[in-house]
């Protein structure tokens, strides 16, 4: 995707972002969304993180006016999706996890048609389609029928359609799914640029590694409920593994760790690294200073996993098993696949 996105200043209503309070939605006796409360702020990318079945898509559908809540309040760009769906749709770009497209239309015509549905003139719709085709790098297949697109190409078309009316709020459900590594990097740059211009971006994914570099903020969801700030703080303060690699004499590091009275149970070996469980950034800084002081030549000293992943795994460790029966998310999340283990 190109680095020169077509973006204009978002509408002033974008200043309001997304505000969700006490949201609930059930399907029969399946409580997909039990109690969600969070804010996604303009100018920032907010990650919606949770295992399969946690209620992310159900939430996004309610924000996009496509599903009515049973209880709670919602505000999108200052409008209520229940009472003002038209205003919310004008302000919101929605990228679903699976593209529903007009199979026989070309990529170009599909975007033009979306633009016409948003009330643009035929000429403006043609211009807008070209802008977006360039933006998401679909130039080579602009004339191809959408039925022939690969999954990754469909994702790009879906994003282009979400951006047609230059929305101030973007709801992206698994946007990187099916993209190759280069396209993922381009998507990240594009989405970050859209947020920098003042848009509110809410991105759902269960692949945490993907979200680490994309998002500014995170909302964690488990079994239909957002995780409280208190539980997040508890998770953040618990011991986490740091990866340490050294050059030079291999016995120096274990010796220095012993001198620093790091318990043997806190140390494990993975490949050519040691993983050391450390509580908090200050302790990590002290440990690094201690190693260097003892002459250890440290070449790598970093958290073994990303922040989102660590927090999610810690949440799982600290959760009450009695609370863990629900419509989904019954086991810990595999941070790479997002599957429940
Ligand atoms: N229309 C529906 N009818 C019945 N149950 C539903 C419906 N939509 C969702 N559910 C159930 O609600 C729960 C939450 O589903 P949802 O799709 O919101 O989760 P998700 O977090 O988006 O999951 P994933 O990461 O797998 O996409 C699941 O148990 C799902 O089976």
Automatic annotation (TrEMBL):
Instruction: Identify the Pfam families for this entry.
Output: ABC_tran (PF00005)
Which ranges does the record mark as transmembrane? none
For the region Disordered, what residue ranges are annotated?
316-341
* Keyword vocabulary terms for this entry: ATP-binding, Nucleotide-binding, Transport
Residue ranges occupied by any ABC transporter domain in the UniProt entry: 18-248
Entry similarity comment = Belongs to the ABC transporter superfamily.
| Gene Ontology MF terms in the entry | ATP binding; ATP hydrolysis activity
The highest taxon in the source lineage is: Bacteria
State the protein's name.
Answer: ABC transporter ATP-binding protein
Write down the InterPro entries for this protein, in alphabetical order.
Answer: AAA+_ATPase, ABC_transporter-like_ATP-bd, P-loop_NTPase
């Amino acid at each position: 995707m190109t680095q020169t996105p077509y973006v204009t200043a978002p509408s002033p209503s974008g200043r309001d972002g997304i505000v969700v309070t006490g949201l609930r939605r059930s399907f029969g006796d399946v409580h997909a969304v039990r109690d969600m409360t969070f804010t996604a702020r303009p100018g920032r990318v907010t990650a919606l993180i949770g295992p399969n079945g946690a209620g992310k898509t159900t939430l996004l559908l309610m924000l996009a006016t496509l599903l009515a809540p049973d209880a709670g309040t919602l505000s999108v760009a200052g409008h209520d999706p229940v009472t003002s769906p038209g205003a919310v749709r004008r302000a919101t770009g929605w990228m679903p996890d699976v593209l529903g497209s007009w199979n026989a239309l070309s990529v170009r015509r599909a975007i033009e048609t979306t633009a016409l549905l948003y009330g643009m003139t035929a000429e403006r719709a043609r211009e807008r389609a070209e802008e977006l085709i360039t933006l998401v790098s679909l130039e080579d297949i602009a004339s191809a029928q959408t039925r022939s697109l690969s999954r990754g190409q469909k994702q790009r078309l879906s994003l282009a359609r979400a951006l047609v009316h230059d929305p101030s709020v973007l709801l992206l459900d698994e946007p990187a799914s099916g993209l190759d590594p280069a396209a993922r990097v381009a998507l990240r740059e594009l989405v970050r640029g859209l947020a920098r211009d003042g848009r509110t971006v809410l991105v759902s994914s269960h692949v945490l590694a993907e979200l680490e570099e994309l998002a500014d903020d995170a909302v964690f969801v488990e079994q239909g409920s957002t995780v409280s700030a208190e539980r997040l703080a508890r998770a953040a303060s618990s011991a986490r593994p740091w990866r340490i690699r050294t050059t030079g004499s291999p016995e120096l590091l274990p010796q220095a760790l012993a001198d620093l009275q790091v318990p043997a149970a806190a140390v494990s070996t993975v490949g050519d690294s040691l993983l050391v469980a450390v509580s908090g950034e200050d302790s990590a800084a002290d440990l690094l200073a201690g190693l260097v002081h003892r002459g250890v030549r440290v070449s790598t000293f970093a958290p073994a996993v990303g922040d989102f992943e660590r927090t999610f795994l810690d949440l799982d460790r600290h959760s009450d098993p009695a609370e863990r029966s629900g419509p989904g998310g019954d086991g810990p999340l595999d941070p790479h696949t997002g599957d429940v283990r």
